[in-house]
Specification:
The complex is a heterodimer of chains A (about 250) and B (about 220).
Chain A: E1 4-15, E2 18-29, E3 33-37, H1 44-51, E4 59-64, E5 67-68, H2 76-81, E6 83-86, H3 98-108, H4 114-127, H5 143-155, E7 161-165, H6 173-188, E8 193-196, H7 200-206, E9 209-214, E10 217-222, H8 224-229, H9 234-241
Parallel strand pairs in A: 3-8, 3-9, 6-7, 7-8
Antiparallel strand pairs in A: 1-2, 1-4, 4-5, 9-10
Chain B: H1 12-45, H2 50-65, H3 68-83, H4 89-114, H5 118-126, H6 131-161, H7 173-183, H8 191-222
Helix pairs in contact in B: 1-4, 1-7, 2-4, 3-4, 4-6, 5-6, 6-8, 7-8
């Protein structure tokens, strides 16, 4: 097995008395694309948020390359530079142009050279088909374009892993495709990713491994071909059935 | 046009202008203090501590419920009575307008911060920004953009409300106007309309550009840019 990027060991997360994540262990290897699926509220988004310390956890450990990820700890600033995260809501900074959105953290956080960062930013924009939008403001972009910029903004930090949290859930259907194509392209180029999505066809296309969660635990996991055609557990079968429309 | 000549008799116009200067001086100093104290208060008001929140709320409500005129009397007469300290009219005015302005400003600042969506904070942190960097580069610029039109509105309200200070003996523009009218009551009974028109015009000259600026900024923001 190739090297692990992230190791999650017996992770527990409560909201009040409610255990949203109830003992999850999972490792993601370099270059692997893991897709998390499951019914709403099953804890998949929360799991991603725990991985870069946005949520305090009540038990277990998360490590990135062996370094612990601890909510509220100073070391988080270092850890987060290595974890790219894109959210469901369009979270670009509205007061900055597309280019400046992308360039902010490499310059301010990683203290990289401005010229190098700008060249890299333009290259990334080109890659996602938005080179003509560099000087636009987020309000002038469509939802799909915003998400593509958000992906560039994370990628420019050279993260070791990308966490994508339902990044197409708020998009109009015709824009979902353009965003998913970008992600598919990343997967082909060996980017390590953990993806939460409700797009089953996309999940099947992009995943190396599918993890089905329900009630805060991993119910089933396996290769996408296996899981989607031949789910073993009854809960997974029931879940997948809701995505096929039958009269 | 009978009575208009009163405006230009002797040094009447100069007196009106120096009255206007008193208005502007009180307003500017109070607005300046309100900006500083209000920003601090607003930052305190976003605190999650229930006691701090309650204290701020009570302060804000008391300041809002009591008319500014009552505050002027309380400070001007009350402080002297209680402490024997003789505050001048203008100083009292600045104190009252700062108490009021800081409260309103604090509420505006609080609102501006709360209006920033949670994911702006989260995506800043996810990008590895420190808390300070997050506030400096992401949160403050957005909060200030939302604040400017409201701050300008508050400033025009404060400028107009300073007319009340004539009631504690400060000779600002409205008071000067009244003196001019009274002095010419018998010779030029129609002078009042012209003097008030001149004062109206002076207030307009100060407040209108501010209102325009506020509207332009609001528009610019709705354009999203």
């Amino acid at each position: 097995m190739s090297e692990h990027i992230i190791d999650i060991n017996n992770l527990v997360k409560h909201f009040g008395d409610n255990a949203v994540i109830d003992g999850i262990s999972l490792s993601v290897s370099k270059g692997e694309v893991v897709v998390l699926i499951g019914p709403s509220g099953c804890g998949k988004s929360t799991l991603l948020r725990c991985l870069n310390g946005l949520e305090p956890i009540q038990g277990g450990t998360v490590t990135l390359h062996g370094e612990p990820v601890i909510h509220g700890d100073k070391s988080l600033y270092k850890v987060r530079q290595k974890i790219g995260m894109v959210f469901q809501s369009y979270d670009l900074f509205p007061h900055l142009t597309v280019l400046k959105n992308i360039m902010l953290s490499p310059i301010k956080v990683q203290k990289r050279d401005k010229a190098e960062v700008e060249a890299k930013a333009r290259e990334l924009l080109e890659r996602v088909g938005l080179s003509d939008k560099a000087d636009s403001y987020p309000s002038e972009l469509s939802g799909g374009q915003k998400q593509r910029v958000a992906i560039c903004r994370s990628l420019i930090m050279d993260p070791e892993i990308m966490l994508l949290d339902e990044i197409t859930a708020a998009l109009d259907p015709e824009m979902v495709h353009e965003v998913l194509n970008v992600v598919l392209d990343l997967a082909k180029n060996g980017t390590t990713m953990m993806i939460v999505t409700h797009e089953m066809a996309f999940a099947e296309a992009v995943a190396d491994r599918v993890i089905f969660m329900d009630g805060g635990v991993i119910v089933e996991e396996g290769a996408p071909s296996e899981f989607f055609r031949n789910p073993k557990t009854e809960r997974a079968q029931r879940f997948l059935k809701t995505f096929t429309y039958t009269k | 046009m009978q009575g208009i000549e009163v405006l230009f008799m002797g040094n009447n116009m100069l007196r009106l202008l120096s009255g206007l200067w008193v208005t502007i001086r009180i307003s500017l100093i109070s607005i300046g203090f309100s900006l500083i104290l209000g920003t601090l208060l607003g930052a305190v008001m976003t605190s999650k501590n229930p006691v701090v929140k309650a204290v701020c709320r009570v302060y804000l409500e008391i300041v809002r419920i009591m008319p500014q005129l009552v505050w002027l009397f309380v400070v001007f007469f009350g402080v002297t009575k209680l402490t024997g300290l003789n505050l001048g009219g203008e100083t009292s005015a600045v104190i009252v307008f700062t108490i009021w302005g800081a409260a309103e400003m604090g509420d505006l600042v609080r609102g501006a911060f709360l209006a920033i969506p949670r994911h702006q904070f989260e995506s800043s942190l996810s990008l590895g920004l420190s808390k300070t960097q997050m506030y400096v580069f992401i949160i403050f610029p957005q909060a200030i953009r939302g604040l400017i039109p409201n701050v300008i509105n508050l400033s025009t309200r404060m400028i107009k409300t300073t007319a009340l200070v004539s009631l504690i003996g400060v000779t600002e523009v409205l008071k000067v106007g009244k003196q001019i009218i009274d002095a010419n009551r018998f010779e030029y009974p129609n002078a009042a309309i012209w003097v008030y028109a001149a004062i109206f015009f002076m207030y307009f000259l100060i407040c209108f550009p501010l209102s325009m600026a506020s509207r332009a900024l609001t528009k610019k923001q709705q354009g999203g840019e």
